[in-house]
Amino acid sequence: MQESYSEQMLDALSGGQLEVAKKLFASALRHDDDDMLFSLAEELYGLGFLKQAKRVYLKLLDAYPDADELRTGLADVLIDEGEIDEAINYLSQITPASSAYLESLLVMADLYQTEELFEASEQKLVEAHALAPDEPVILFAMAEFYFNMRQFKDAIKYYKELLMQGVKQFSRVDLVSRIGVAYAQAGNFDNAIGYLEQIHEADMTPAIQFQLGFTYFQLKEYEKAIPALEKVVEMDNQFASVYPYLGQALVETNQLEDALRIFQQGLAVDEFNETLFKIAAETAIKLGDFALATKYYEEGLAIEPDDVSLVLGLSNLYLQAENDDDNIELLSAYVQNDEVDPQIYWNVAKSLTRVDQWELARKYWHAAADSFMDNADYLHEAFSFAKEDADRPWALELGSQYLLLQPEDYDMLDQVRALADDL
């Protein structure tokens, strides 16, 4: 049997013969029957030849104005072309009595999602589900919508309905892995692991493999998390999210040198990740490499100067090294902020005291007080300052509060009694 012009055109396209295909397309429009043209339109749309698919659909719609399945096909093309209003116009012509109405609802839902009109999209999906509650295409569309909207409880419900129908994969999406990821993203790690461990190796993408390792990490099963996360690095060493969790799992198992190496690899992939700088610095401190820790804190702050955890990490290192001038210089830019972390006041007060800047030190000891009157370490240090500063009433207040927390500190008890006797 001789091939139709439509078939010859598709053969020419597959062979890269675009000029030949163009001529065959014109012949197909003139000579091929309507069923063949309908198949051609679908094939052209799938191949991305939108203008040609649109011409075929319009020709057929002229011949069959009541064929609503042509409107849904045409709407798909128009949406991909960005002709949203025109697509809505064709879809709106399809009435609930039409056999294509269900398909039109799904196309409309996709359109609204593209336009980020999520409430309208959900309404179309809900209407479609009410009309055909067991239809797999609709169940999958509902599940994917809620998954992408991070409404994981609803997504899991519809994925499970598909599984109960015996559908384990839809549109190349593995439903078991989707459920596992949804549970993990919802923080339900105990349920997540049961699904994630079922996934076949052939279906394991780096993202799903990461979710498996991440779930082990959240369950504090670090011995399982480490090989699972290492597998992510093997699959895709540019997968930046894996490095903080893999490194921290190694820290939890006291493999500090390996953890630091992983953090360094992560920084090579994502050099602007302030979290990696922070945990790399903390690991360097545990290894006793304070110079390296200082380097990481400083590099992190160069990227994110408002990250308080980095500021305080570096400040604490300066305090430990009695590097008070650098600490004062570091914190001076932050103490002017009305919403500053009170720990900054405390840290700068310590350094100012040690360099004998008593007036400024007094200001910041008092600034920290409201936040730390239930902190025994602060109360003890502030008491020592107030006593040295000859502020006996405040020293007595601090010491008395300290004794409420540490009543067996008899040395402090003696000092407070002596202060009380002097007043």
Automatic annotation (TrEMBL):
The gene is bepA. PROSITE patterns: TPR. Keywords: Hydrolase, Protease, TPR repeat. It comes from the Bacteria. GO terms for molecular function: peptidase activity. One of its GO terms (biological process) is proteolysis. Pfam families: TPR_16, TPR_19. Its EC number is 3.4.-.-. It comes from Periweissella ghanensis. It is an enzyme of class 3 (hydrolase). This is Beta-barrel assembly-enhancing protease. TPR repeats lie at residues 206-239, 240-273, 274-307.
